[in-house]
Amino acid sequence: MPSPEALLTRELGPDRVLTSPDALLAWECDGFTVHRSRPRAVVLPETTAEVQRIVTLLHGERVPFVPRGAGTCLSGGPTAGPDAVVIDLARMRKVLQVSLVDLFAVVQPGVVNLDLTSAVAAHGLHYAPDPSSQSVCTIGGNLAENAGGPHCFKYGMTREHVLGALVVLPDGSLARLGGPAGARAPHELDLIGLFCGSEGTFGIATEITVRLCRDQQSIRTLLAAFASMRDACRAVSDIVAAGLVPAALEILDQATIRAVEASVYRAGYPADAAAVLLVELDGAADVLAEEAEEVRAIFAGHGALRVEQAQDASERKRLWKGRKGAFGAMGRLNTDLYVLDGVVPRTRLEQALDGIAAIGARHGVLLTNVFHAGDGNLHPNISFDGRDPEQTARTIQAGREILQLCVDLGGSVSGEHGIGSEKIDHIAMMYSPTDLEVMARVRAVFNPDGLCNPGKVLPNRSACAEVAKWPQMTARVLDAEAGRP
Amino acid sequence: MSLAPANVDELGELLRTRPGRLRLCGGGSRQQRLPPRGDALELCCRRLDRIERIDAPDQTCTVEVGVPRAALDEALHRLGLELPCPGGGTLGGLFAADDVGAASWGGPSPRTLLLGLDGLLADGTAFRSGARVVKSVAGFDVHKLLVGSAGRLFVAARLHLRLKPRPRAEAWFRRDDLDGPAAAALFTTLCQQAIPPAAMQLRRTPRGVELRGRLAGRASTVRAAQQAFALREAAADWLDHVAAPTAGECLAGGARPSQAADLLALLPPGSDFVMHGGGRFELDTDGPATSDQLLHRLHALGATACIVHGAPARRGLGTPTDPGAARLAQGLARALDPHGLLV
Questions:
Q1: Which residues make beta-bridge pairs with A223?
Q2: How far apart are CA A135 and CA A317, in angstroms?
Q3: Which of A173, A175, A186 faces B252 most closely, judged by CB atoms?
Q4: Cβ of A410 under 8 Å from any chain B Cβ?
Q5: Is the pLDDT of residue A266 over 60?
Q6: Domain residues of chain A, as ranges?
Q7: Nearest-CA residue of chain B relative to A238?
Q8: Is the Cβ of A317 closer than 8 Å to some Cβ of chain B?
Q9: CB interface of A with B, residues 39-78, below 8 Å
Q10: Which of B140, B147, B190 should one mutate to test binding to chain A, selecting the residue with the greatest count of A CBs within 10 A?
Q11: What Å distances lie between residue A284 and A228, A347, B112, B222, B293, CA to CA?
Q12: CA-closest candidate to residue A107, choices A134, A74, A141, A77
């Protein structure tokens, strides 16, 4: 009997089926580097028909498989167990259709987020969701994770921009969910809304229809430096309370500012500030002049140390450079970076940040904060040395306590990174076993055999054990906390 | 017979103990648009009418499903907030039916405003999905299945909703001086704007074709749009549905904005028609033969539609659905309500 690898090679040819350990190294983790596991093979399809044949074959052979985009996910979502085959969609990078009349595009899943905007920019259009990794992350990955980004405060997350998708289901059959018009008939279920954010466990989207947004007439980007994080957070609350809806409201704390300023992402942020707040307004030019004045008045009311307003596109790019490069800059602080992702009600930001600082101090970990303040979406980052098991354990424990804090404050364990394998033990902080059982029933409709991205999102000890060491490591921390041997 | 629990606990108890099949309803306004309920008892959620919290600074709220839309609007108005989607009746009905969709192309819709819910399966098992915060990607979004489900998968008890600040200025507009193709072209053009109208609809009545809508934002933005497109100010006027015909049928569906002109061209003489800015449309016909012919043409156009008013056996018939999607929808119904108790 030929092996699944041999059958896949027969389908795709040897160049598009990778099996050697060295070749597989690049697929052993995503941005969540704590969880590493090398898959048994990687396949590189280029068409829907190829994806369908691969999935049908693997389903028939009972081999688990994991769809993957650029691998920029931060929760271990596309990390495959040693028994699984990675279906890498990076070669499916065609923009299949653009409608300049109805403002949508149909793309393959490997199209890079920013490349889509570049493809339609000449027509005064853009694709709104803008994760920090937008220059490399793919639309397929964005769909799987329901990705966010700084501008989703105003424009919404990926789900609000996905109209439909052609999906290869885990048994190899096809389903067309939604459509270019968002033209779901009355009493039809919102299947594409459900599929978006399912973290690659419901199937593989091979053609994705997304909404394009008309560029706004004008953009104003302001940066304010504050003497305390409290002032920055209160300025955010006042901006929102005033009924303003900025395109983005981003805060960086002092440790992040200093990391950025010491890196190639240097943006001229004041290194003595306790926090900087980046506010972007977009809309009609005359309106923006009024709104910028209102924002400046709010800054002044909270004792801003310095306010800067971009005068042109290059200055705007500079102000954003520090924010967009913040995670890269933190790479300087230690060998590994654990990027957390929790949400609290916006009005609890100050309380959450105080609590996070206390947790960091208690565990002796180096914590920095950069976050989407408008949404209350925190990204506490812990820089650590992953080669040191004790340091890693403290990092994991601090992360767990931070997410528990978010839940205790009425929030969520994830705002945009997803659960993946990282938070598989944390999701129960938010949901009861019954809630999770209902979710499992829904997943089983799409993925009844559990072959599509197993061991992700929902706790399932047997599946976890197959995936890799990360959940086991988490379990050890939890056991230690509970006093179990 | 109608069952009307007074609170969420009673609702759970009723589901756990009652025999037989149930048809959910809120204010009852949508009953005429659903397939026949057969022997099912009516489970009326109208008494679940508490606005449990409005968190104005965080722009979220939690409501029981029987809260009338008008009551929430009134409470939000006092706080300078709004639920930025059209639709009336009870909030549970508004989300479960989702029969208007977005009021403008790309604008907020029930799908985007539902952050989470507390629900009950048909056997009374309570569950939660989603969150109360404006952003969460934790777990699978079972709550999104409420939208458009017509209450046939599970019983929603409480909804967690996203709110928006009320715009500082607004103005309703009306254009009734254009012929069909010109009105449809203007409809498409307005959908393409960087700041489209907050709500818009294209109507055809026996009096002719007209375009109506609501501009919202800053006063200068509203003025600029009025001037650029000659949008004459008019009284607030929004129509969720065409009037249910006393004889004949009513079709509802979805299409792209640029298909507005094609839809107008397909309409039988004398047919009432409304198309919302988000692409949802409704029209009436004089009976099954015309409806069936139209459904064929709509399918050929790439639009979707189904019969929402007419003889009970005809309700729900429509353009073909994708077989894969249909299989998933059936699977979800079996998974969440295995005994088919919610009809």
A1: A278, A308
A2: 14
A3: A186
A4: yes
A5: yes
A6: 4-88, 218-330
A7: B57
A8: no
A9: none
A10: B140
A11: 32, 29, 25, 11, 45
A12: A141
Q: For residues B209 and B203, give the distance between their C-alpha atoms in angstroms, rounded to a whole number.
A: 6
Average pLDDT over chain A reads 92
Rounded average pLDDT over B118-142: 96
Q: Which residues of A touch B31 (CB under 8 A)?
A: none
Give the separation between CA B307 and CA B314, rounded to whole angstroms. 7
- Return the pLDDT at A185: 65
Closest-CA residue to A183 (of A211, A214, A215): A211
Model pLDDT, residue B106:
84
Contacts of A156 in chain B (CB under 8 A): 112
Structure tokens belonging to residue A256: 């992040």
The answer to ipTM > 0.90 is: yes
Token pair recorded at residue A293: 């004045």
Domain covering A4-88, topology: 3.30.43
Are B304 and A243 in contact (CB < 8 Å)? Answer: no
- Residue A286 backbone zone (phi > 0: left; psi -120 to 50: alpha; other: beta): alpha
pLDDT of residue B37: 77
CATH number for the region B49-165 comes to 3.30.465.10
- The whole-number pLDDT of residue A364 equals 96
Q: Thinking of the domain A218-330, which architecture would CATH place it in?
A: 2-Layer Sandwich (3.30)
pLDDT band at A467 (very low <50, low <70, confident <90, very high): very low
Q: What percent of chain A has pLDDT over 70?
A: 93
Structure tokens that stand for A429 in this block: 């902080």
CA gap A295, A132 in Å, rounded = 24
Tokens of B325: 């999607």
> Which of B125, B253, B308 comes nearest A183 by C-beta?
B253
Contact between residue B251 and residue B295 where contact means Cβ atoms under 8 Å apart = yes
Using DSSP's 3-state secondary structure scheme, residue A276 falls into strand
Under 8 Å between Cβ of A59 and A170: yes
Tell me the percentage of chain A whose pLDDT exceeds 90. Answer: 87
| Non-local CB neighbours of A1 within 8 Å, separated by 6+ positions | none
Nearest to A414 by CA among A339, A325, A474: A339
Q: What is the pLDDT of residues B145-165, one digit of tens each?
A: 999 998 999 999 999 999 999
Q: What is the pLDDT of residue B211?
A: 96
The chain-wide mean pLDDT, for chain B, equals 93
Q: What is the fold of B169-314? A: Vanillyl-alcohol Oxidase; Chain A, domain 3 (3.40.462)
Percent of chain B with pLDDT over 90: 78
**Tens digit of each residue's pLDDT (9 = 90 or more) over B324-334:** 999 999 999 99
pLDDT reading at B116 higher than 90: yes
CB B50 within 8 A of CB B64: yes
